[in-house]
Design goal:
With about 350 residues, the protein is an alpha/beta fold. It contains 9 helices and 10 strands. The structure holds zinc ion (ZN).
């Protein structure tokens, strides 16, 4: 990314590709869902403004209307940052486990509980892995992401005090799983602290693909500089190269991402990024293997910046992470018509 933080972030996978996206919302035209979304997002911005009052962040702008292209920021790479302290319990347990087990098996199709999301399958991809710091050789190997190659995975960033992004993403992912399962969804995580490192970004995408997930969200937090704050959702660009073909997922992924952005603001009060996306809270990228290789609707969310003191107060709060998980989950639920 254009900032000098330790971890230009965003990284992982999911996607979509063979065939056309499944229809949702009982066959109603996709445009209807977009039209419904814009007011939702706008209302969320207004709620945020009322709740937070004038701040030093850039004022939020209305999300792009259907058909408008989003802000595309210059290519932002995904270099791994220097390791943060790996003293957490998660790191220890991850390191003591054996070789990476095969990621959770894709259920044939949702057994499902009861609730509005019954029959829906959601894959949550907690970015990085608490054990990655101890497996640099494994995570540094190259994997093909269609239009190039990337590291298998990265360590992720951390707060200055050593709270790692990998712990954050796993925590939020588990809270999301609980929220969505309570509403009837079948939820699969790409990693659940059960493996020593990874998965690689191509495998993260493959997990969503094999599961034929109805929606996939990769959870991250950024590693930019102090003063850069706010969240942004990363949408897949149109990429057709090698094994990558995001053509079928670009549109539904944008729908998913816009809904998440709007409802995340409403739930958390977190403003859209003041350093990526021109105030929209949305960014589009073609360099993330997790998006390039996905054949099902997928987005990433950078929940905040772990190197900004204001964002850190939020990211390190249990209560705030619950709100973050709720906001993302509500966006998924809206997308799935639940
Ligand atoms: Zn990350």
């Amino acid at each position: 990314m254009s900032y000098a933080g330790p971890e230009p972030d965003g990284f992982d996978e999911d996607y979509y590709r063979d065939g056309a996206p499944r229809r949702r919302f009982g066959g109603r035209p996709v445009l209807v869902t977009f039209a419904a979304l814009v007011p939702t997002a706008l209302a969320a911005w207004l709620v945020w403004q009322v709740v937070s009052g004038p701040g030093d962040s850039e004022p939020p702008k209305v999300l792009p209307a259907p058909g408008q292209s989003s802000t595309v920021s210059p290519s932002q790479d995904e270099k791994a940052s220097s390791p943060a302290p790996s003293t957490s319990k998660e790191s220890k347990s991850a390191a003591s486990s054996s070789a990476p087990s095969k990621a959770s098996k894709a259920p044939a199709k949702p057994a499902g509980g009861s609730g509005p999301l019954k029959g829906k399958l959601v894959v949550i991809d907690p970015g990085h892995n608490p054990g990655n710091f101890r497996h640099t050789t494994e995570i540094n190997r190259s994997v093909n992401v269609g239009n190039g190659s990337k590291e298998c995975d990265t360590t992720g960033t951390s707060t200055n005090a050593g709270y790692t992004e990998a712990r954050f993403t796993l925590d939020v992912a588990k809270r999301m799983r609980a929220y969505l399962e309570q509403r009837g969804a079948t939820v699969q995580l790409t990693q659940d602290g059960h493996r020593a490192w990874g998965p690689c970004v191509d495998e993260r995408a493959e997990i969503g693909n094999k599961a034929k997930a109805d929606a996939v969200v990769s959870v991250h937090a950024d590693g930019s500089g102090e003063g850069n704050r706010g969240f942004h959702v990363i949408l897949p660009a149109s990429v057709r190269a090698g094994a990558a073909d995001t053509t079928p997922i670009v549109k539904p992924s944008r729908d998913l991402g816009e809904r998440i952005a709007g409802l995340y603001v409403k739930a958390t009060g977190q403003a859209p990024s003041n350093y990526v996306g021109g105030g929209t809270g949305l960014d589009t990228r073609s360099d993330l293997g997790g998006l390039n290789l996905s054949k099902v609707p997928k987005v990433f969310i950078e929940c905040g910046n772990m190197r900004d003191s204001q964002d850190v107060e939020r990211l390190t709060s249990d209560a705030w992470r619950q709100k973050a998980a709720q906001g993302i989950s509500e966006g998924i639920m809206s997308f799935l018509g639940g």
